[in-house]
Amino acid sequence: MEHNFKSKFNIDYTKSELTGLPNNFFIKHREKYLTKVKTFKEIDTNSILIIQAGDSISLYDTDVNMQYFLQESNFYYITGVREEGLKAILDLSSSKLSLFYTQPNDEMRVWEKVMTKEDLSKKYEIDVYDMTDINKFIKYRDPKTILLLEGINDNSSLPVNTAHLDFKDEYAYLNDRIVHDNLSYEILKDVRSTKLDHEIDLMTFINEITIDGHLQMMANIKPGINERDLEMIFFNYFYKKYYTRIWAYPCIGGGNKNSATLHYENNDEVLKDGGLFLADMGVRICNYTSDVTSTFPVNGKFTKKQKEIYDIVLKSNLAVQNMVKEGTIYSSMDKLSKIVILEELQKLGMLKKEYSIDEMFNNKIHSLFMAHGLGHELGLDVHDLGRYVKYKSELAMEIGTVYTVEPGIYFVDFVFQNAFKNEDQKKYLNVDMIKSYLDFGGVRIEDDVVVTKDGCINMTKRIPRTTDEIEKFMSKHNTFCKMNNSK
User: Fold this and answer.
1) Three-class SS of residue 359?
2) Dihedral of CA 140/141/142/145: which sign?
3) How far apart are CA 247 and CA 238, in angstroms?
4) Domains observed in the chain
């Protein structure tokens, strides 16, 4: 029931979660980034780029951090450094990386482990200086321009964690060399969106163990347990086996009607016999993430209704996977996923046959059943960078892009109640049939794929996906199903 993954780079990623990834991984990231930077005439190569690390943030007005520190993703991609409170200077001319660090005083050694500049330099094989010397360092380097990593994250609409510089007195003239232009960030978004071989190797491992976590839930689900019992089965599996401490994202584990809420995170209700359970759960290892959704029956057997809806979602998922390759436009993938859903719902009788699929698509009838887009980029962030880059007109799949394919069908009561009152939408709907599904919940099937020249590699292909595969797995590995579903 567990993976047999072997790293192409002979790396034990479980150990790397504790010790960190090899430093040469991040040298390759910097080389990739600088190679791209040098293709832009707008950026003077006699420049330095200053990148700000993350900091621990207390919750509200307390003095307690409510989670373990996670490095800011852009800083981590360039440096590989996992410690907080640093600045990095990347020299665009020499390619040299330098770190600046405020070493805690000796009193802090009573409360926590304190790393010295020498410790950091040895660990990451990078020159480390005292933070108070950063102005002196920049003055001595004498760059023509000083670039700050700044911009807006398109997924969150929040600003990038940008370094603050304090040039005063003898250093005041350096303020005139600061260039406020988000091009350096746009390039980094672009570079991060296509993964190098070592990133794909790591993410393949992460997906393989994520599959194992989903199989653990399938093997232990039964009527009468709480949604959070499944969350803890998933969480504890990785906590005990892979040293994980920080989630990729909060577990979405919805049974019954809760499976229709896209980002349901309460996970606090009892699972009913005859219902479905939607598990959208991923893992974070070495700062990289997975994002996988499986939907399966609480008692191990799909009802006729459940099988029909599940099969439509799976058909949509596979149609997109068969379409994906280098050059495929995201909007075409997204449209195909929804066209398939409309076609199959019409065959099922849920949508009226006198209207064309194109008309229903143009009038966004698919959004009643699937309110979200097809998927998103995946990497250091669950919603990774690269989908929107200002110097690219439209998102096209590139070799090495890691993308989620996650169509779904959801029966959200208030959405359809509103649609029944809207004549422009109601005319397409078989109202009586849809009303009989309003206690159904939802189905989502999410796979993580790597784009190749001629297709894609599904990193989650080992997970049971057809209704037959799911029922067979549960009848073999789930004790409740063995006892109650035997013929």
Assistant:
1) helix
2) negative
3) 10
4) 43-180 (3.40.350.10), 194-484 (3.90.230.10)
